[in-house]
Amino acid sequence: MNAESLEQIAQRRQAARDGMKCRVSVCSGLGCESVGGESVLEKIRARMRLQGLADQSEVHLTGCRGLCQRGPIVEVEWGAAAQKQRHLYLDVDEATADRIALSHAATGKAPDDLPSHADNPFFTKQTKIVLANAGEIDPEDIESCIAAGAYSGLEKAITEMKPADVIAEITKSGLRGRGGAGYPTGLKWSTVAKAAGPKKYVVCNGDEGDPGAFMDRSVLEGDPHEVLEGMALAAYAVGAEQGYVYVRAEYPLAIKRLRAAIKQAEKLNLLGTHIFDSAFNFRVDVRTGAGAFVCGEETALIASVEGARGTPRPRPPYPAVSGLWGKPTLINNVETLANVAAIVRKGGDWFASIGTEKSKGTKVFALAGKIKNTGLIEIPMGMTLREIIYDIGGGIPDGKKFKAAQTGGPSGGCIPAQYLDLPVDYESLQQVGTIMGSGGLIVMDEASCMVDVAKFFIEFCREESCGKCIPCRAGTVQIHGILDRIARGLGGIEDLEKLEDLADLLRNTSLCGLGQTAPNPVVSTIRYFRDEYLAHVVDHKCPAGVCTMEGAAAVAPLAAVNG
Amino acid sequence: MTVKTLLLNGKPVSAAEDQSLLDLCRENGVRLPTLCHLDGLGDVGACRLCLLEVKGSNKLLPACTTQAQEGMDVTTESDRLRRYRRQIVELLFAERNHVCAICVANGHCELQAVALEVGMDHVRFDYQHPLTEMDATHPRFIVDHSRCILCTRCVRVCDEIEGAHTWDVANRGMAARVITDMAQPWGQSDSCTSCGKCLRVCPTGALFEKERAAVGTRKNRDFLVYIKNAREKKQWSR
Amino acid sequence: MTADQLGATTSKAGDKRLKMLDAAMRRQQFQPDALLEVLHSAQELYGFLSTDVLTHIGRSLKVPPSRVYGVATFYNHFSLKPKGEHACTVCMGTACYVKGAGEILGAVRRDLGLSDKKATTDDGKVSVVVARCVGACGIAPAVVFDAEVVGGLAPEAVVARVKGWTR
Questions:
Q1: Which one-letter DSSP state was computed for residue A112?
Q2: Which residues are CB-neighbours of B56 under 8 A, at least 6 positions away?
Q3: C88 - beta bridge partners?
Q4: Among B158, B141, B157, which residue's Cα sits nearest to residue B206?
Q5: If residue A15 lies in a helix (H) or strand (E), which one and from where to where?
Q6: Is residue A254 one of the residues assigned to a domain?
Q7: How far apart are CA A14 and CA A25, in angstroms?
């Protein structure tokens, strides 16, 4: 495989596509799948066959379009090569699918009563880099991915650039870790590159344990080659020959698609030995997680790949210097790696032109909770929360009021209404007491109780704590116990002080990020919703009407006796 | 062998290559509370009692697993460090069922000693009262989980020194327990050699001899360094 | 328990499963590092990880039994007890929680007489399990019926579907 043959595949595919009368892509994201996406695909294929257009139409699955609330989502592209037109359909059931296929096949245009939703601000306000190929490619067909540019970045790097040049581009781009910490990617790469070899590893962290986040899942399922190419570029840059994709067990489709993608890439020698006829070798294996949130932490992930309990190890030494089996290891999040190929192809300057001064590029968010348009979005860093929630998200349903947006999952905090005009980037989020996190963005309305939300998150941390260090193991139990008592109406004002003390203890003495950030939701909700906490512990009332407060009844008679 | 110089509580000291901050403190007469550390065993940095403040780092570093570096400026005592140490011990006492009055290690217990050292005299947190069990199936030894602090010294000594790896940790978080083999009764363990090392390294009364149950147990822990020196350096002095 | 006994105590199916487990371990070259992959294979073959299976794996990979047990019990995905014929997994991720997953879980558990300590019905037909997040936040609240993920159901609808299994 060399540049020429890669180009040939791309051209052949493009030519075939141009010759088609129409091309239909059906979203294969989990949201659309669960409402019958697969059968919609079959219906359309069947209709095309009936109309005698089986070999003049391309009907395929594609990656997540993002608007999970309105699936199944179907896009039809038709017309002469020079003037392709597109029509985006939402809420497509089997009957509608048949109508759409018939209409395009017989009349060459869309049914009159089904307008295109391509102009919906949900779509137009986004900026796609990581999710750019949704609608273009079939994730199970490598040639369609090549036609969209897959592996052209790798080819460019291997034939035209030195490893140090690749690192320079990534550094110039300003790309920061998308898993949550926001560590400068170029710096991490250069640290691993400088570490003593010869054996080094590249690991893609697909553990995505944050409850409420499904960005990485969608990328792995919808565009696996984007991630594989990113890993190969990373390996080339730092001097590694073996890569692992660590995917959580709860994502069987992602695992299946990845394995298939690796096989297809190996067959075309885009992975393996002497890639693009060079001295560069790189092979990738998939490793499955087994249901442990803590394994998203780098050293715990390493322990897991090594076949042990996923307990974190003291850092330093950092994985970049001593990681998997003691060797220098580069660990990057799925989304981070998914940006790499585009940066190599278009240049670090291009990437740096998007976003804010310290937060470059885009971020994929999983928009969920009390919002009209739940789903997956990709926006430039710096867009305000208001734009995300109201312009793209469609606002709060049922005429309810916005109360808070939670980012960063169990490691993050909430953003109250007063910060709706906050530009979303790493620094701004940190300043208001939360973190970017992996991308989960949960919107809450007045029906949510912030004490209950804090309790939910700390219970999660308590269950996921590995148990190695005392502050996290015993501290999360205590924090949860206090919040539980408060929610049952048995709390007192001294409990708030205890919570703050425990928060300080866990943040500063826990061994790893799980324990260190576990208090964040508690601290953040106390900071912005202190009145709500006071109502619980002083008045023994839950303003949102969520907490059971059963203990309050027991306490009241005593209060009456004691005056 | 590069020697490093650094500041320890404002005083300049020198450290050998690979020397841990904990080692350095001891060498210079600086006391640090520890529970999971034991001379002769690999360090895990789990109890978090030996955390130190290092200038230039906003993170506290565990003395047992952190190597001394040139130019470090280390502080071992401060109000917050003292507060954290006390709270960690409070959390331990509240976590399981530590009743000193009826414990075989009463008076000779490292947990008690550390509590005294960090000035913990009462527990603010809610006692958890977990359902813990005792396993007396072994002919000579007993394990009482109500006294276990999960320091994992037993796991490490059985793995690193005896080599049998009978002990390990099962489950996660607050449900974590030390177990033998397939979590079966200790008396049924195939791998246990009854060497008694785990008993001797256990800081509390969680692991003890049946013979000494009534009279109380005293544990002599320097056998570990003795064995290590004998094996590795061919030195048999005690 | 020897490998022979392990294969012999169960039926012909047991022999086959044991052969497949051994093949999975051979594919990993019996490396101790591959413990997690092997546990995954074993769970897929047997539905859960019995002490016998864990012991056999430990012997084959040359990993001490306590370490095998420690690893198997660390991860949520592995089950040391047999699961029910059918599994209803209620996602308790943040998005699903905010959309009422708690009520769904409560309703289903109440209907079947289950709790957080008891996950499987006495007749072994149904298990009700909690998942920390299945990544289907766009269709919250998500419930997985065996392998099928369904979103947006009300508690009554979920209970009705699960009832269908008990007939």
A1: T
A2: B73
A3: C128, C145
A4: B141
A5: helix A3-18
A6: yes
A7: 15
Beta strands in B24-90 (DSSP E): 51-54, 61-62, 73-75
Q: Which helix (H) or strand (E) holds A216?
A: helix A215-222
A218 with A283, same domain: the answer is: yes
Q: Which of A31, A208, A310 sits opposite C138 (nearest CB)?
A: A31
Cβ neighbours of B173 in A, within 8 Å: 462-467, 473, 476-477
Residue-wise pLDDT for A122-154, tens only, equals 999 999 999 999 888 999 999 999 999 999 999
Residue in chain B nearest C54 by alpha carbon:
B182
User: What pLDDT does residue B22 have?
Assistant: 97
Question: Taking a C-beta distance cutoff of 8 angstroms, is the pair A158, A236 a contact?
Answer: yes
> What pLDDT digit, counting tens, does each position of A86-98 carry?
999 999 999 999 9
H runs (alpha helix) in B65-152: 79-95, 110-118
In angstroms, rounded to a whole number, what is the distance separating the alpha carbons of residues A400 and A445? 6
Query: Is A463 in Cβ contact with C138 (below 8 Å)?
Result: no
pLDDT exceeds cutoff 80 at C134: no
User: Which residues are CB-neighbours of A552 under 8 A, at least 6 positions away?
Assistant: A489, A490, A540, A541
Residues of chain B in contact with residue A463, where contact means CB-CB under 8 angstroms, are 172-173
Q: Domain spanning C86-166: which superfamily? A: Glutaredoxin (3.40.30.10)
Asked whether the beta carbons of residue C137 and residue A440 sit closer than 8 angstroms, the reply is yes
Structure tokens at A526: 């106390």
**Residues of chain C positioned with their CB less than 8 A from the CB of A374:** 95, 137-140
The reply to whether A173 and A319 lie within a common domain is yes
- Probe site for chain B from A477, A498, A510 (most B CB atoms < 10 A): A477
Q: What is the ipTM of this complex?
A: 0.96
| pTM of the shown model | 0.93
> Scanning every residue of chain B, which has its alpha carbon at the shortest distance from the alpha carbon of A311?
B172
Final residue of a domain: which of A445, A467, A489? A445
Smallest CA–CA distance from C78 into chain B, residue? B171
Testing the interface with A: which of C133, C145, C150 to mutate, by most A Cβ within 10 A?
C133
Out of B171, B183, B191, the one facing C64 most closely (by C-beta) is B191
| Contacting partners of chain B (3+ CB pairs under 8 A) | A, C
Q: What is the CATH number of the domain that holds A179?
A: 3.40.50.11540
Strands (DSSP E) along A401-510, which ranges? 402-407, 414-416, 440-445
Element (H or E) spanning A430, and its range? helix A426-431
Residue A198 in domain? yes
| pLDDT tens, residue by residue, B18-55 | 899 999 999 999 999 999 999 999 999 999 999 999 99
- Both A309 and A409 in one domain: the answer is no
CB proximity list for A358: less than 8 A, separation 6 or greater: A174, A425, A426, A427
Its domain, for residue A470, covers 450-562
The residue ranges of every structural domain in chain C are 3-74, 86-166
Hey, of B157, B169, B198, which one would you mutate to test binding to chain C, going by the most C CBs within 10 A of its CB? B169
Are B166 and C70 in contact (CB < 8 Å)? Answer: no
Q: Which CATH number covers residue A29?
A: 3.40.30.10
